[in-house]
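Hi L., both proteins are below.
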Amino acid sequence: MRKEMEQRVELERQRAGNAAEASERLRGAREHVVEKILTLSCPRCTQAFVDFEGCFALNCSRCRAAFCAYCLADCGKDAHAHVGSCPEGAASLKAMKSKEKAAGGGGGGGGARGLAGQGTTYGTRAMFDESQKRRRCKHLVLYLERHDGETQSKILEGVKTELADLGITSRELRHWQKKEDKAIAEREKKQQQANLAAAARGGGGD
């Protein structure tokens, strides 16, 4: 009887330890999402920022790093060259124009102007918000893919207030999940094709 009691106590101790460990992992995951994905910050020194004054080539007020307001990439001393060719900038402009067109604006309002396939250095707050919503959704979906379904749900539950404040809906996250799944499948297909081509070249040399 005493041995059984000791085994039960040990089992409960292990369960409590596992629960505490899981809770700590979940807390860490929530903290990562809020601080590294949802909060706008300098890519070099991580100082948070909220202001946008119309130029997508930004400079950190603390470390003076130059970075892109579309994708938050560290661009060294000057971000203007990167901003003009940033893929996220071009994608954000395209998305902005599509929304304006769907709303009856003809796709040319709101300052969403730029050459096809290019970003624009100057724009509106609405353009900036659109680019950051896209960035947040993309990186959140990529981060969630590291976890199982149950943990994903718990993480999203833990940041639902922050997501609501940013106007990010579950529908948008599902949309980005599909996009990333498609992109991963395309990359895997290209890699398989490259492997087959390499194998064919190797076999032809025997």
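That was the first. Here is the second:
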Amino acid sequence: MSSTVSAPVVRHLLYEGRRVTSAEPELWHLARRRGVTATDCAKIVRKNGVPSSQRRTLLAQKLYGLRGPDYAVYAHGREREPHIAAWVAAEFGIEHNEALCVGEDNRHMATPDAVGPEGIAEFKTATQPLERAVRTYSDQLQWQMHVLHTERVLFVVEDRHTLQREWTWVHRDEGRIGVLVEHADRFIAELEERKAQRQAQYAEA
């Protein structure tokens, strides 16, 4: 491992003594309702630092256990993930991951597609070129680096039609992470306040 790159700090969320993983989707989705995940970030704050218009919908989804639509492209991504993971493990030594990881604040969560001593990795199947995909998913990648205290993430994009792969290392941006953390903590505070209000209403009923 390069002397300039420290290994990720991996903390797993446990339920009844076992790791919460995407292999148990119901438990995984339930656990993710507790706070903010990497995929939530773009729904909370825009690139310009303004709260996202999707924030209210996300809050309702977490509060009531609702889920967004499962599009065909998502199913394709899940189907291709093991193949991309095997390639990443062989080429970079970063092993496939399905476990939900948490930060120092365990309401800050992420499930990177691979985790290893050299860093973490995230895979996407897409039709857009690598450079554009990096911009699209930049906040998700920065949040993963925040949660796992690492300096970089290997970002792999596989073309949805040709299955050709491109990759790059994306590096940590402390300024952007600060923005994400600020907005995430506000979101979590509102989520917990709304949960407390609902519990109080049930108790009075």
